[in-house]
Write a structure and sequence with these properties.
The chain is of the alpha+beta class. The chain has two domains: 178 residues, Gcn5-related N-acetyltransferase (GNAT) (Aminopeptidase), CATH 3.40.630.30; 201 residues, no CATH class. It has 13 helices and 15 strands. The strands form two sheets. Strands 1, 4, 5, 6, 7, 8, 9, 10, 11, 12, 13, 14 and 15 form a 13-stranded mixed sheet that branches. The protein has a two-stranded antiparallel ribbon with strand order 2-3. The longest helix has 18 residues. One of its GO terms (molecular function) is aminoacyltransferase activity. This is Acetyltransferase (GNAT) family protein. Keywords: Transferase. Pfam families: Acetyltransf_6 (PF13480).
């Protein structure tokens, strides 16, 4: 028997030239106190002055709905309305990430007769000054992001408008460079290839809830199905689903145990303020799943609920119970709940490296036999002169396999 949406489960299987027309409606961006780009008319010479400072980046090194082929990652598979719902594109998400990214969350919005674009990023100070002047760079918040088109009547002119506006913002705010982790599901890099230097980095995976009549049988590997069935037959194991992130402290404890086991860098030990900020900002758009052995929590997962997509955000397992493979029950529980509640897929992300045999990716593929996505990054040098100067001052090779090279 199973319960509905929460509680205990014992499951069954089941450059931008401007033509005369666009000059009449061209815009520049001025940042308001709320960190939003307000679109205002500007004088032509302001744009011309700013345009000279932009440079291209160096190439980087390294309720159910109709069925849809989620494995095809070279096209936009989700409508603009659902992009607007995705947590990674929201102002609240970038602001929460100030707590872990050592920077200031910025949300930008451009609206005109040509369409609507939003963009969010973390603005980080570069701790090297030039003639006493401070400079900054931009990076996507933890996870995914980048600019995204919500609607468009003329995509070419909208992209030109976005680049003009954003280059003015960067020039006025001493922004040197920008690094973007584009969204694997929405493939938003496709719209911005003419502005950013984009490249494919690695694969990500998920479980599709709508392609198959039996998601468990078709998406989970034989090994995964066997492990799940074994635990479901054992009355000592159960899983519990909660909306609203009510159990923050237990999650932090078990998550930190996992970071210790993996010898994670300090960055991944997210402070308590971060978790409570997620709870405060997103409420019922969060979900946790707990796997229990008898009455003891031995594994937990934290998930974002965005439109019809579930994002598997963070997980943890008590190392004393690894022999029971509780992570398999987490994957099963999230799949089962998603199917029963009308979601279309859960996205697990990718590995920790670009290697095809990355062990984390290999594990996730056990639940993703048919659902793959392409993860792209984007790079942009907004001020080439300052970028090169910073590299020289720090003794860094401008062409090294890390972007930005001065860091």
């Amino acid at each position: 028997m199973t319960q509905n949406s929460m509680g205990a489960y014992k499951g069954t299987f089941g450059k931008r030239s401007l033509d005369p027309e666009s000059l009449e409606t061209a815009y520049t961006a001025e940042e308001s106190s709320s960190n939003r780009i307000r679109v205002t008319r500007f004088k032509r010479e302001a744009l011309d002055a700013a345009a000279g400072g932009a440079a291209e980046a160096e190439q980087a090194a390294a309720v159910k709905s109709p069925a849809v082929d989620l494995k095809t990652a070279d096209r936009d598979i989700r409508p603009a309305a659902k992009k607007a719902m995705d947590i990674y594109f929201t102002k609240d998400y970038v602001k929460v990430n100030e707590l872990i990214e050592n920077g200031e969350g910025k949300f930008f919005e451009i609206k005109s007769k040509y369409g609507h674009v939003t963009h969010s990023a973390i603005k980080r100070e570069i701790h090297t000054t030039i003639n006493g002047e401070k400079y900054y760079d931009l990076i996507s918040p933890y996870g995914y992001g980048g600019p995204v088109i919500h609607e468009s009547t003329n995509k070419e002119k909208l992209m030109s408008e976005f680049e003009d506006c954003f280059s003015v913002y960067c020039a006025n705010n001493n922004i040197v460079s920008e690094f973007i982790r584009f969204h694997p599901i929405f493939q938003n890099q496709e719209d911005f290839k003419g502005i950013y230097d984009t490249m494919y980095l690695r694969q990500t995976v998920g479980t599709d809830f709508i392609k198959f009549e039996d998601t468990f049988q078709n998406e989970f590997s034989r090994t995964a199905r066997t492990k799940v069935r074994k635990r479901l037959r054992d009355d000592r194991f159960s899983f519990h689903i909660d909306r609203g992130f009510k159990n923050v402290e237990p999650f932090i404890d078990i998550y930190n145990l996992t970071m210790e086991r993996h010898n994670a860098t300090q960055f991944y030990y997210f402070n308590r303020e971060y978790f409570y900020a997620l709870k405060d900002k997103f409420g019922d758009d969060l979900m946790t799943i707990s796997v229990k052995f008898e009455d003891k929590i031995i594994a937990m997962g934290l998930y974002f609920l965005s439109g019809d997509v579930i994002h598997d955000h963070l997980n943890g397992t008590n190392p004393d119970y690894l022999e029971y493979s509780p992570a398999y029950l987490l994957k099963y529980a999230s799949m089962k709940w998603g199917v029963e509640n009308g979601y279309s897929l859960i996205h697990y992300g990718g590995g920790v490296s670009n290697a095809e045999d990355d062990p984390v990716l290999h594990f996730k593929k056990r639940f993703s036999k048919h659902t793959e996505f392409e993860f792209h990054i984007g790079k942009k040098i907004w001020d080439r002169e300052v970028y090169d100067t910073l590299c020289d001052m720090r003794g860094m090779d401008k062409n090294r396999d890390f972007f930005p090279a001065y860091r």
